[in-house]
# Entry
Amino acid sequence: MITWRRVAETDFGLLREWLVQPHVARWWDHDTSAEGVARDFGPAARGEEPSEDLLVMVDDVPVGLVQRCRFADYPDYRAELAVQIDLPETAVTLDYFIGDPARVGQGLGPRILRQVVAATWADHPHSSAVVVPVHADNRASWRALEKAGLHRVGVADLDPDHPSDSRTHYVYRADRPVGTPSGSAALR
# Structure
């Protein structure tokens, strides 16, 4: 069973272990020192930043991370992407990795993404879409999005996470399913 919870400061050691794994480090260019991980993940863990860092578990065993946030909470990033693709004001984005190398290549990524996207409609009732830019060279990542049901809606020129990569990103999108309650009804 796939579940998740917010990352806590007690998870930082595990995040450090995952961030140094070659399959993660290739796409997540992070400072993996204790100080660097605390700097990058601490504000969300303490509720000081609006993003959600979610520790993903399979049968209560941690396997990966999903970051989820509203584009509206990061206006510079939203503006950079919105001039290149149709980006709803209420869109949410994801970033993710499978940290446990033994779990890579087993179809877990698409299952996690599918469930997180489905949960987003309830967790973020005002969101109309999940929009995910992913580096064009990161085939495993964009294939996971496709297997999870997201559709490629464009190509964007964005700063890469890894400085040696090009700026080319594929943009994937899932819209709120018809019949799924949206926040507009809650506002009435």
Remarks:
- The chain has seven helices and seven strands.
